[in-house]
Write a structure and sequence with these properties.
By secondary structure, the chain is of the alpha/beta class. Helices cover about 40% and strands about 20% of the residues. The strands form two sheets. It has a nine-stranded mixed beta sheet, with helices on both faces.
Length: about 240
């Protein structure tokens, strides 16, 4: 395996599958099966999952919600997704735990870095929910923060596209894919793979990011083995 410990960022929107809302059981199980394969090969996996399949603070704010409250609702949406993934993994005999950035025992443990790292060292999957616990921060920033804290080798950003492109491939058919790109290039070209706070944190702390298509089964294992799929973002 190329990586020993990873922070896997999963998209809440991708969890919808074909449903358009909520959690698609088939997609959830696909994710859990891929994570199980990684764990069985000895990779330590920390996970941050978005909440956009249930509620997004920013889109809520655009519809009249107070941004502060909207972001809190978004954080709770990530906890629902974390519990679903936790349940799916446990059903496959993979030990996992949910740690939340906001106190809400017994729903999940309150996040603590030493406890999270000790669990990872024991081979448990640690699902890190509720973002950073603060409004005005995205789950991408939460992923960057947790990836740095747990000293992950890389942040794996699982999306529905297979890497970083010169433009949005869903809108521009001439867009071409980068095999690798620097954080500075991402910033200078205005490529929106993550928000600027998350990008800056990864750059400053030298946390590499691989953007790849998580919705194609088998891709997570390919990335972990170092196969050249997706896009590597680096200093």
């Amino acid at each position: 395996m190329k990586y020993k410990r990873v922070l896997l960022k999963l998209s809440g929107e991708s969890l919808m599958g074909e449903q358009g809302y909520g959690i698609d059981p088939d997609r959830l199980n696909d994710y859990a099966e891929q994570i199980k394969e990684a764990v069985e090969l000895g990779v330590q996996v920390g996970i941050v999952i978005g909440g956009g399949n249930i509620f997004r603070g920013l889109s809520g704010a655009s519809k009249g919600f107070d941004r502060y409250k909207g972001d809190q609702m978004g954080m709770l949406a990530t906890v629902i997704n974390a519990l679903a993934l936790n349940s799916a993994l446990n059903g496959m005999d993979i030990t996992s735990r949910v740690m939340t950035a906001i106190r809400m025992e017994p729903v999940g443990e309150f996040y603590d870095k030493p406890k999270a790292v000790a669990a990872l060292d024991k081979g448990e999957v640690v699902i890190l929910a509720a973002g950073t616990g603060n409004p005005y921060f995205t789950t991408d920033t939460g992923s960057s923060l947790r990836g740095i804290e747990i000293e992950a080798d890389v942040m794996l950003k699982g999306t529905r596209v297979d890497g970083v492109y010169t433009a949005d491939p869903e809108k521009d058919p001439t867009a071409t894919k980068y095999d690798s790109i620097s954080f500075d290039e991402v910033y200078n070209k205005g490529l929106q793979i993550m928000d600027l706070t998350a990008t800056a944190m990864c750059k400053e702390n030298d946390l590499k990011v691989v953007v790849f298509d998580m919705d194609t089964k088998g891709n997570l294992l390919k990335v972990l083995k170092g196969e050249n799929i997706g896009t590597l973002v680096h200093n």
